[in-house]
Model the fold of this input.
Amino acid sequence: KRRDKNRWTLFEESMDLQYSERQRMKLDLREAIRTGAMELCYQPMFSPDGARIAGAEALSRWTHPELGPISPAVYIPLAEEMGIIGDLTRCVIDKAAQECASWPGELFVSVNLSAFDLADRAIISVVADALDRSGLAPERLQLEITESGLMNDLETARVILTELRAMGMSIAIDDFGTGYSSLSYLDMLPLNKVKIDRSFVRNLCADARKLKLLRGVVHLARELGLDIVVEGVETEAQLRLIRENECADLIQGFIFGSPIPGSAFGELATKLTKQDLIASAETSRLS
Ligand code: C2E
Ligand code: MG
Ligand code: MG
Ligand code: MG
Done:
């Protein structure tokens, strides 16, 4: 069952690769990042009624020449360990800003930062350069952060994020509600958005306590003036509950779309934005 849900089950389940395999993969990863062989997919974020597309999350993809697609759950920690995560982050931000600038309307793009990125002020010029080169308005770039184990210098992270936010970007805390994103960050970091982890959505329909938890988290986030993205929505029943309980400003999940390559996302966005414009023209004509 798990197999068809995830193309890269093989590596997800054997995270402790053989030493030689690991060494080999490290060399290949370094090469892939250096030569720009890493690709980007985009997963849409929709208004809860599914009528409007607001933006997309950029997710990196690595297809190994012999091993096939490797999960980010494998190569992100490898890149962190090798000290080359910053190079990957730069590639992702560059490409995402470039592609987002070609999308219609005011769509935003959201990129994942590693905790390592937030330990070094270099990230500020990486972002500034990407915005410069692409001409993308900073308001259309969002940065997602998680703890991922090593955000031990919270003060440095806070200072860097404050600066990025002052430049116009928005900051989202990712995987919220898991061990990787602690409650105290809500108070310490300059956030705009909370992305509620998909563990809150799983079993939402079968377990009444899940809904209470979700509603509680949503209430907390709203009290703090944060926007809410609910991740991992897969079924109509989950979506209905989330809508009835007004638990989301945006939805990201398989129900509205999986991650797709940039070209396909561009087409989707263009099509939906046109429909959106037509719909709003019709509404204003009727009123
Ligand atoms: P994330 O940032 O929380 O990204 C969302 C992940 O959930 C993606 O997995 C996405 O495909 C998956 N997902 C989205 N909707 C659904 C759904 O309805 N059901 C289920 N079961 N899953 C859903 P992916 O692409 O495998 O990425 C995994 C993680 O790897 C990401 O989690 C992110 O933390 C990390 N990652 C991916 N690309 C990058 C990157 O370029 N840089 C960094 N630093 N991290 C990245
Ligand atoms: Mg993310
Ligand atoms: Mg997430
Ligand atoms: Mg996640």
Q: What stands out?
A: Residues 175 surround magnesium ion (ligand 4) (CB under 6 Å). The two ends are 50 Å apart (CA to CA).
